[in-house]
Design a protein that fits this description.
about 90 residues; mainly alpha; elongated
């Protein structure tokens, strides 16, 4: 399970970062703005913090879904073995 988690996390982060970079618009600064000072007000800081929190939320949500799917797969492949069912139950709980 640990080996699978080591592969899933970088792949998931890569997908999200690719989408994030694809949304970046180069050359979309409004006329008259100074590119050396991208943050000029406190509202812009809160906007950035809100975006970061939103990204963290979605990454956490996707990782949680992956772990629930792995726990379900463990249940399906347990074959009635009580030790494997208990392990799958612990995966789902934690």
């Amino acid at each position: 399970m640990k080996k699978i988690a080591l592969y899933i996390l970088p792949i998931t982060l890569g997908i999200f970062l690719t989408g994030f970079l694809a949304q970046a618009a180069i050359g979309s600064l409004p006329s008259g703005s100074n590119p050396d000072v991208p943050i000029t007000t406190v509202d812009q800081i809160w906007t950035i913090v809100a975006k970061v929190v939103r990204w963290i939320y979605w990454i956490f949500f996707m990782v949680a879904i992956v772990f629930v799917i792995f726990a379900a797969f463990s249940y399906l492949t347990a074959g009635g073995d009580p030790a494997k069912v208990k392990k799958a139950n612990n995966q789902l709980i934690y």
